[in-house]
Amino acid sequence: AGVFMVARLSPLFEYAPDALTLVTIVGATTCLFAATVALTQTDIKRVIAYSTCIQLGYMFFACGVSAYSAGIFHLTTHAFFKALLFLGAGSVIHAMSSEQDMRRMGGIWKMIPVTYSLMWIGSLALAGLPFFAGFYSKDIVLEAAFGAHTTAGMYAFWFGIIAAVLTAFYSWRLIIMTFHGESRADEKTLAHVHESPR
Questions:
Q1: How many contiguous H segments (helices) and E segments (strands) does the chain have?
Q2: What secondary structure does DSSP assign to 9-34, as a single string?
Q3: Nearest in space to 77 (alpha carbons), one of 168, 170, 6, 3
């Protein structure tokens, strides 16, 4: 709602360049701060929730450099791939008998292949790999920050680049800890792992 409000009030913000600079700096700082926090989370839903904070940072700094349409575009693409990730996390939690700690998961990709596949799609979009929705929207946000040719724009660009690298890292970490390696779940939980209903 905040991103939408800033975009809708763009005519007012254009008359307040200092306010736009503040929006850019706060958005970029939010990106990097939330990315570092996401790296340390072990709860599958919290990793995805902090990821949302990072993406909000991108949306706000896009608006801060007057790329309102880029901010709204990223808001829209993010809504879809983040919904997919949260639904996938819910499916994993359901399969793991309400377990949310990724340290107690692992080795379940063959037991829930549909969830596994959809989590990969959401993670690739979140990480901004080419040909996925996140690539197009995140790229235009970073391009707008770089193209602003301002100190705040460059600050946002570099913080956005670092946050993108960290996003890719914790996305792979989520997939690997949740689905790969030796299972760290107890036998009772493993016996009940199953795909969610359609």
A1: 9, 0
A2: THHHHHT-HHHHHHHHHHHHHHHHHH
A3: 3
Spatial separation of the C-alpha atoms in residues 173 and 46, rounded to whole Å = 13
User: What type of residue sits at position 37?
Assistant: V
pLDDT tens, residue order, the chain (198 aa): 899 999 999 999 999 999 999 999 999 999 999 999 999 999 999 999 999 999 999 999 999 999 999 999 999 999 999 999 999 999 999 999 999 999 999 999 999 999 999 999 999 999 999 999 999 999 999 999 999 999 999 999 999 999 999 999 999 999 999 999 999 998 888 888 999 988
Contact partners, residue 127, CB within 8 Å, separation at least 6: 134, 164, 167, 168, 171, 172
Tell me how far apart the alpha carbons of residues 61 and 115 are, in angstroms, rounded to a whole number. Answer: 33
Q: Where are the alpha helices (DSSP H) in the chain?
A: 2-8, 10-14, 17-38, 44-64, 68-95, 113-127, 133-147, 151-179, 187-191
Element of type H or E holding 88? helix 68-95
Q: Which residue has the tokens 């700096």?
A: 25
Q: Are 54 and 167 in contact (CB under 8 A)?
A: yes
